[in-house]
Write a structure and sequence with these properties.
The chain is an alpha/beta fold. It has a single domain, classed as Metallo-dependent phosphatases (Purple Acid Phosphatase, chain A, domain 2), CATH 3.60.21.10. The longest helix is centred in the N-terminal third of the chain and has 25 residues. It starts with a helix and ends in a 7-residue tail after the last helix.
Length: 371
Protein backbone atom coordinates (compact mmCIF):
# COMPACT_ATOMS: atom_id res chain seq x y z
CA UNK A 1 0.00 0.00 0.00
CA UNK A 2 2.87 2.37 0.86
CA UNK A 3 4.57 1.66 -2.48
CA UNK A 4 1.29 2.45 -4.26
CA UNK A 5 1.06 5.79 -2.42
CA UNK A 6 4.63 6.76 -3.30
CA UNK A 7 4.11 5.91 -6.98
CA UNK A 8 0.82 7.84 -7.02
CA UNK A 9 2.48 10.92 -5.49
CA UNK A 10 5.35 10.86 -8.00
CA UNK A 11 2.90 10.45 -10.90
CA UNK A 12 0.66 13.22 -9.60
CA UNK A 13 3.57 15.64 -9.19
CA UNK A 14 4.69 15.03 -12.77
CA UNK A 15 1.16 15.53 -14.09
CA UNK A 16 0.70 18.73 -12.11
CA UNK A 17 3.96 20.14 -13.44
CA UNK A 18 3.02 19.20 -17.00
CA UNK A 19 -0.44 20.71 -16.56
CA UNK A 20 0.94 23.98 -15.20
CA UNK A 21 3.52 24.17 -17.99
CA UNK A 22 0.90 23.42 -20.65
CA UNK A 23 -1.41 26.05 -19.26
CA UNK A 24 1.32 28.67 -19.00
CA UNK A 25 2.32 28.07 -22.62
CA UNK A 26 -1.17 27.74 -24.09
CA UNK A 27 -3.36 30.21 -22.17
CA UNK A 28 -1.20 32.56 -20.17
CA UNK A 29 -0.39 32.48 -16.48
CA UNK A 30 -3.03 32.64 -13.75
CA UNK A 31 -1.72 34.63 -10.82
CA UNK A 32 -0.93 32.21 -8.01
CA UNK A 33 -1.55 29.11 -10.14
CA UNK A 34 1.27 27.19 -8.43
CA UNK A 35 -0.11 27.91 -4.95
CA UNK A 36 -3.62 27.00 -6.05
CA UNK A 37 -2.59 23.66 -7.55
CA UNK A 38 -0.21 22.77 -4.71
CA UNK A 39 -3.08 22.97 -2.21
CA UNK A 40 -4.28 19.68 -3.70
CA UNK A 41 -0.97 17.92 -4.32
CA UNK A 42 -1.54 15.34 -1.57
CA UNK A 43 -4.97 14.33 -2.84
CA UNK A 44 -4.86 10.97 -4.59
CA UNK A 45 -7.27 8.74 -6.49
CA UNK A 46 -7.34 5.05 -7.23
CA UNK A 47 -6.54 4.00 -10.77
CA UNK A 48 -9.26 4.69 -13.33
CA UNK A 49 -11.38 1.55 -13.75
CA UNK A 50 -12.22 2.47 -17.32
CA UNK A 51 -15.92 3.19 -16.97
CA UNK A 52 -16.89 6.10 -19.23
CA UNK A 53 -17.66 9.52 -17.80
CA UNK A 54 -18.12 11.39 -21.11
CA UNK A 55 -21.22 10.85 -23.25
CA UNK A 56 -21.80 12.42 -26.66
CA UNK A 57 -25.07 11.99 -28.54
CA UNK A 58 -27.83 13.98 -30.20
CA UNK A 59 -30.41 13.31 -27.49
CA UNK A 60 -32.25 15.89 -25.41
CA UNK A 61 -31.08 16.10 -21.81
CA UNK A 62 -33.39 16.49 -18.81
CA UNK A 63 -31.69 17.25 -15.49
CA UNK A 64 -33.21 17.35 -11.99
CA UNK A 65 -31.78 18.71 -8.77
CA UNK A 66 -31.77 17.15 -5.31
CA UNK A 67 -34.86 14.93 -4.86
CA UNK A 68 -34.26 14.06 -1.20
CA UNK A 69 -36.50 11.02 -1.15
CA UNK A 70 -39.49 12.63 -2.84
CA UNK A 71 -40.78 10.00 -5.28
CA UNK A 72 -44.01 11.94 -5.84
CA UNK A 73 -42.15 15.04 -7.04
CA UNK A 74 -40.07 12.93 -9.43
CA UNK A 75 -43.18 11.24 -10.81
CA UNK A 76 -44.83 14.63 -11.26
CA UNK A 77 -42.00 15.80 -13.52
CA UNK A 78 -42.00 12.62 -15.59
CA UNK A 79 -45.78 12.48 -15.85
CA UNK A 80 -46.25 16.15 -16.74
CA UNK A 81 -43.66 15.79 -19.50
CA UNK A 82 -45.47 12.69 -20.79
CA UNK A 83 -42.44 10.46 -20.22
CA UNK A 84 -44.18 7.79 -18.12
CA UNK A 85 -47.58 6.15 -17.86
CA UNK A 86 -49.21 7.90 -14.90
CA UNK A 87 -50.90 4.66 -13.74
CA UNK A 88 -48.06 2.14 -14.04
CA UNK A 89 -44.99 4.38 -13.94
CA UNK A 90 -43.52 2.68 -17.00
CA UNK A 91 -41.34 4.74 -19.32
CA UNK A 92 -43.07 5.70 -22.56
CA UNK A 93 -40.97 8.65 -23.63
CA UNK A 94 -38.48 8.90 -26.45
CA UNK A 95 -34.78 8.27 -25.92
CA UNK A 96 -33.12 11.01 -23.85
CA UNK A 97 -30.41 11.69 -21.29
CA UNK A 98 -32.04 11.82 -17.84
CA UNK A 99 -29.60 13.17 -15.24
CA UNK A 100 -30.17 13.26 -11.47
CA UNK A 101 -27.42 15.26 -9.78
CA UNK A 102 -27.34 13.48 -6.42
CA UNK A 103 -28.94 13.63 -2.97
CA UNK A 104 -31.68 11.28 -4.13
CA UNK A 105 -32.26 10.11 -0.57
CA UNK A 106 -33.08 11.54 2.87
CA UNK A 107 -36.01 13.80 3.45
CA UNK A 108 -39.50 13.01 2.19
CA UNK A 109 -39.72 9.44 3.49
CA UNK A 110 -39.69 7.70 0.09
CA UNK A 111 -35.97 7.02 -0.33
CA UNK A 112 -36.25 3.25 -0.70
CA UNK A 113 -39.25 3.56 -3.01
CA UNK A 114 -37.38 6.06 -5.18
CA UNK A 115 -34.29 3.85 -5.49
CA UNK A 116 -36.46 0.81 -6.22
CA UNK A 117 -38.30 2.71 -8.94
CA UNK A 118 -35.05 3.96 -10.47
CA UNK A 119 -33.75 0.39 -10.76
CA UNK A 120 -36.73 -0.44 -12.96
CA UNK A 121 -36.74 2.87 -14.83
CA UNK A 122 -33.07 2.50 -15.71
CA UNK A 123 -33.79 -0.64 -17.71
CA UNK A 124 -36.75 0.92 -19.50
CA UNK A 125 -34.86 4.10 -20.44
CA UNK A 126 -31.97 2.03 -21.78
CA UNK A 127 -34.42 -0.08 -23.78
CA UNK A 128 -35.69 3.13 -25.42
CA UNK A 129 -32.15 4.01 -26.49
CA UNK A 130 -31.64 6.61 -23.76
CA UNK A 131 -29.50 6.96 -20.66
CA UNK A 132 -30.20 7.37 -16.95
CA UNK A 133 -27.24 9.10 -15.29
CA UNK A 134 -27.19 9.03 -11.48
CA UNK A 135 -24.74 11.17 -9.53
CA UNK A 136 -23.49 10.81 -5.98
CA UNK A 137 -24.51 13.49 -3.51
CA UNK A 138 -23.24 14.11 -0.01
CA UNK A 139 -26.27 12.30 1.45
CA UNK A 140 -25.46 9.08 -0.45
CA UNK A 141 -21.89 9.34 0.83
CA UNK A 142 -22.90 9.96 4.44
CA UNK A 143 -25.18 6.93 4.74
CA UNK A 144 -22.74 4.75 2.78
CA UNK A 145 -19.94 5.41 5.24
CA UNK A 146 -22.19 4.77 8.24
CA UNK A 147 -23.45 8.21 9.32
CA UNK A 148 -26.99 7.02 9.95
CA UNK A 149 -27.95 10.26 11.73
CA UNK A 150 -28.11 11.93 8.32
CA UNK A 151 -31.21 9.92 7.36
CA UNK A 152 -34.59 10.97 8.82
CA UNK A 153 -36.54 8.33 10.72
CA UNK A 154 -39.29 8.03 8.14
CA UNK A 155 -36.72 7.26 5.43
CA UNK A 156 -35.02 4.75 7.73
CA UNK A 157 -38.30 2.94 8.37
CA UNK A 158 -38.75 2.32 4.63
CA UNK A 159 -35.49 0.35 4.58
CA UNK A 160 -35.99 -1.55 7.83
CA UNK A 161 -39.72 -2.32 7.51
CA UNK A 162 -39.25 -5.08 4.91
CA UNK A 163 -36.33 -7.49 4.32
CA UNK A 164 -33.73 -6.77 1.66
CA UNK A 165 -32.56 -9.79 -0.32
CA UNK A 166 -34.09 -12.00 2.36
CA UNK A 167 -32.32 -10.29 5.26
CA UNK A 168 -33.98 -8.05 7.84
CA UNK A 169 -32.16 -5.00 9.19
CA UNK A 170 -32.91 -3.21 12.44
CA UNK A 171 -30.39 -0.41 11.95
CA UNK A 172 -30.11 1.74 8.84
CA UNK A 173 -26.30 1.74 8.95
CA UNK A 174 -26.38 -2.04 8.48
CA UNK A 175 -28.41 -1.62 5.29
CA UNK A 176 -25.73 0.49 3.62
CA UNK A 177 -22.84 -1.42 5.20
CA UNK A 178 -23.71 -4.78 3.68
CA UNK A 179 -23.83 -6.25 0.16
CA UNK A 180 -27.40 -6.02 -1.18
CA UNK A 181 -29.30 -4.74 -4.19
CA UNK A 182 -29.31 -1.13 -2.97
CA UNK A 183 -25.59 -0.88 -2.26
CA UNK A 184 -24.90 -2.60 -5.58
CA UNK A 185 -27.10 -0.01 -7.28
CA UNK A 186 -25.24 2.84 -5.55
CA UNK A 187 -21.96 1.48 -6.89
CA UNK A 188 -23.18 2.42 -10.37
CA UNK A 189 -23.45 6.12 -9.46
CA UNK A 190 -20.85 8.61 -10.69
CA UNK A 191 -19.37 11.67 -9.03
CA UNK A 192 -19.15 13.65 -12.25
CA UNK A 193 -20.02 13.14 -15.89
CA UNK A 194 -19.96 15.18 -19.08
CA UNK A 195 -22.99 14.88 -21.35
CA UNK A 196 -22.93 16.69 -24.68
CA UNK A 197 -20.46 19.24 -23.38
CA UNK A 198 -22.24 19.88 -20.05
CA UNK A 199 -20.36 18.86 -16.90
CA UNK A 200 -22.65 17.49 -14.18
CA UNK A 201 -21.49 17.29 -10.57
CA UNK A 202 -23.34 17.45 -7.27
CA UNK A 203 -21.48 20.33 -5.60
CA UNK A 204 -18.64 21.61 -7.79
CA UNK A 205 -15.04 21.32 -8.92
CA UNK A 206 -11.68 22.59 -7.69
CA UNK A 207 -7.96 22.42 -8.38
CA UNK A 208 -7.81 18.71 -7.56
CA UNK A 209 -8.87 18.15 -11.17
CA UNK A 210 -5.25 18.77 -12.14
CA UNK A 211 -3.85 15.87 -10.11
CA UNK A 212 -4.39 13.41 -12.92
CA UNK A 213 -4.95 13.89 -16.65
CA UNK A 214 -8.08 11.75 -16.52
CA UNK A 215 -9.21 12.69 -13.05
CA UNK A 216 -13.00 12.64 -13.55
CA UNK A 217 -12.80 8.93 -14.40
CA UNK A 218 -10.40 8.32 -11.52
CA UNK A 219 -12.63 10.24 -9.09
CA UNK A 220 -15.62 8.14 -10.12
CA UNK A 221 -13.49 5.02 -9.67
CA UNK A 222 -12.44 6.19 -6.21
CA UNK A 223 -16.09 6.59 -5.16
CA UNK A 224 -16.81 3.06 -6.38
CA UNK A 225 -13.78 1.68 -4.54
CA UNK A 226 -14.86 3.24 -1.24
CA UNK A 227 -18.50 2.27 -1.75
CA UNK A 228 -17.46 -1.35 -2.35
CA UNK A 229 -15.33 -1.19 0.79
CA UNK A 230 -18.14 0.21 2.94
CA UNK A 231 -20.70 -2.31 1.69
CA UNK A 232 -18.46 -5.39 1.74
CA UNK A 233 -18.85 -8.27 4.17
CA UNK A 234 -17.09 -7.43 7.43
CA UNK A 235 -14.33 -10.01 6.91
CA UNK A 236 -13.49 -8.48 3.50
CA UNK A 237 -13.77 -4.82 4.50
CA UNK A 238 -10.21 -4.37 5.78
CA UNK A 239 -8.65 -6.15 2.81
CA UNK A 240 -10.51 -3.97 0.29
CA UNK A 241 -9.88 -0.60 1.94
CA UNK A 242 -8.67 2.04 -0.56
CA UNK A 243 -5.55 4.11 0.26
CA UNK A 244 -5.94 6.75 2.98
CA UNK A 245 -4.80 9.45 0.55
CA UNK A 246 -8.03 9.00 -1.43
CA UNK A 247 -10.40 9.85 1.43
CA UNK A 248 -10.60 13.52 0.41
CA UNK A 249 -13.35 12.76 -2.12
CA UNK A 250 -15.87 12.45 0.71
CA UNK A 251 -14.48 15.17 3.00
CA UNK A 252 -16.88 17.99 3.75
CA UNK A 253 -14.62 20.86 2.66
CA UNK A 254 -13.06 19.75 -0.63
CA UNK A 255 -14.94 16.80 -2.11
CA UNK A 256 -16.98 17.14 -5.32
CA UNK A 257 -20.16 16.23 -3.41
CA UNK A 258 -19.53 18.66 -0.51
CA UNK A 259 -17.91 21.84 -1.89
CA UNK A 260 -19.51 25.16 -0.99
CA UNK A 261 -17.52 27.13 -3.59
CA UNK A 262 -20.46 27.35 -6.02
CA UNK A 263 -23.00 28.77 -3.60
CA UNK A 264 -24.77 31.79 -5.01
CA UNK A 265 -23.96 33.74 -1.84
CA UNK A 266 -21.72 33.47 1.24
CA UNK A 267 -18.98 31.52 -0.51
CA UNK A 268 -15.96 30.29 1.51
CA UNK A 269 -12.95 32.58 1.79
CA UNK A 270 -10.76 30.35 -0.39
CA UNK A 271 -13.47 29.54 -2.93
CA UNK A 272 -12.53 28.95 -6.55
CA UNK A 273 -12.10 32.13 -8.61
CA UNK A 274 -13.57 32.74 -12.05
CA UNK A 275 -10.24 32.51 -13.90
CA UNK A 276 -9.47 29.21 -12.14
CA UNK A 277 -12.94 27.89 -12.93
CA UNK A 278 -12.66 28.92 -16.58
CA UNK A 279 -9.32 27.15 -16.87
CA UNK A 280 -10.72 23.90 -15.42
CA UNK A 281 -13.72 24.01 -17.73
CA UNK A 282 -11.49 24.45 -20.75
CA UNK A 283 -9.17 21.76 -19.40
CA UNK A 284 -12.15 19.35 -19.39
CA UNK A 285 -13.62 20.60 -22.66
CA UNK A 286 -16.90 21.50 -20.94
CA UNK A 287 -19.30 24.28 -21.90
CA UNK A 288 -21.37 24.46 -18.71
CA UNK A 289 -21.25 23.14 -15.16
CA UNK A 290 -24.63 21.97 -13.85
CA UNK A 291 -24.92 21.31 -10.12
CA UNK A 292 -27.25 20.83 -7.18
CA UNK A 293 -26.32 20.76 -3.46
CA UNK A 294 -27.11 24.40 -2.61
CA UNK A 295 -30.74 25.42 -2.81
CA UNK A 296 -31.19 28.57 -4.88
CA UNK A 297 -32.45 31.54 -2.81
CA UNK A 298 -35.52 32.17 -4.97
CA UNK A 299 -36.30 28.47 -5.59
CA UNK A 300 -35.73 28.94 -9.31
CA UNK A 301 -33.07 27.44 -11.57
CA UNK A 302 -30.20 29.93 -11.74
CA UNK A 303 -28.43 30.19 -15.10
CA UNK A 304 -25.18 32.01 -14.41
CA UNK A 305 -23.28 32.75 -11.21
CA UNK A 306 -22.68 36.26 -9.80
CA UNK A 307 -18.95 35.61 -9.30
CA UNK A 308 -18.13 32.68 -11.59
CA UNK A 309 -19.92 33.80 -14.72
CA UNK A 310 -22.51 32.43 -17.17
CA UNK A 311 -21.20 28.84 -17.38
CA UNK A 312 -22.61 27.75 -13.99
CA UNK A 313 -26.20 26.48 -13.77
CA UNK A 314 -27.63 25.75 -10.30
CA UNK A 315 -30.65 23.43 -10.34
CA UNK A 316 -31.37 22.67 -6.66
CA UNK A 317 -34.68 24.49 -6.20
CA UNK A 318 -35.85 22.52 -3.15
CA UNK A 319 -37.76 19.93 -5.18
CA UNK A 320 -38.45 17.70 -2.19
CA UNK A 321 -41.52 18.28 -0.06
CA UNK A 322 -39.13 18.13 2.90
CA UNK A 323 -37.36 21.24 1.58
CA UNK A 324 -40.56 23.08 0.68
CA UNK A 325 -39.20 24.56 -2.51
CA UNK A 326 -40.27 24.37 -6.13
CA UNK A 327 -40.40 21.30 -8.38
CA UNK A 328 -38.28 21.98 -11.43
CA UNK A 329 -36.21 20.46 -14.22
CA UNK A 330 -33.71 21.76 -16.76
CA UNK A 331 -34.38 20.77 -20.37
CA UNK A 332 -31.38 21.00 -22.69
CA UNK A 333 -31.86 20.65 -26.42
CA UNK A 334 -28.48 20.32 -28.11
CA UNK A 335 -29.80 20.71 -31.64
CA UNK A 336 -31.60 23.95 -30.78
CA UNK A 337 -28.83 25.10 -28.45
CA UNK A 338 -31.16 26.02 -25.59
CA UNK A 339 -31.36 25.32 -21.85
CA UNK A 340 -34.90 25.85 -20.57
CA UNK A 341 -36.00 25.74 -16.90
CA UNK A 342 -39.40 24.09 -16.40
CA UNK A 343 -41.52 24.31 -13.24
CA UNK A 344 -44.30 22.05 -11.96
CA UNK A 345 -47.07 22.23 -9.39
CA UNK A 346 -46.68 20.01 -6.36
CA UNK A 347 -48.91 16.93 -6.69
CA UNK A 348 -51.55 15.97 -4.14
CA UNK A 349 -50.67 13.08 -1.85
CA UNK A 350 -53.24 10.80 -3.48
CA UNK A 351 -51.73 11.26 -6.93
CA UNK A 352 -49.62 8.35 -8.29
CA UNK A 353 -51.13 6.04 -5.66
CA UNK A 354 -51.20 3.11 -8.10
CA UNK A 355 -47.50 3.54 -8.89
CA UNK A 356 -46.57 3.71 -5.21
CA UNK A 357 -48.59 0.57 -4.53
CA UNK A 358 -46.75 -1.26 -7.31
CA UNK A 359 -43.42 -0.17 -5.86
CA UNK A 360 -44.47 -1.23 -2.37
CA UNK A 361 -45.48 -4.64 -3.73
CA UNK A 362 -42.10 -4.90 -5.45
CA UNK A 363 -40.35 -4.09 -2.16
CA UNK A 364 -42.40 -6.63 -0.20
CA UNK A 365 -41.61 -9.29 -2.81
CA UNK A 366 -37.88 -8.52 -2.84
CA UNK A 367 -38.19 -6.53 -6.08
CA UNK A 368 -39.33 -9.61 -7.99
CA UNK A 369 -42.62 -8.05 -9.11
CA UNK A 370 -42.32 -5.99 -12.28
CA UNK A 371 -43.53 -2.42 -11.98
Amino acid sequence: MRIFSIVQKIFSTVVILLSVESFAQGRGQIAGLDRWVNRYAEMQTVLDDGQPWTFENQLTTLALGDLHGDLNAFLQVLSQMDLIDSETGRWKGAAMNLVLVGDLINGAGQSRSLLTYLMQLQNEIHASGGYLHLLVGNHEIEVSKGDEDKMPQRDQREFTEHPIDGESFEQIEDVFRSPNRYTKFLSQFQMMIKVNGALFVHAGIQGWLMINRNLPGAINSTWRAWQRHWSADRDKRRAERPPRETRWIFHEEDGPAHLQDFRLNQRPRRAIQQNQFEYLMNYLGADYLIKGHNMTPDERIQIGHPELGPRVISIDTGISEAKGGRISALLMDRQKGIAEPIYFNRPGRSKFKSIRERIKLAIENRCQVAL
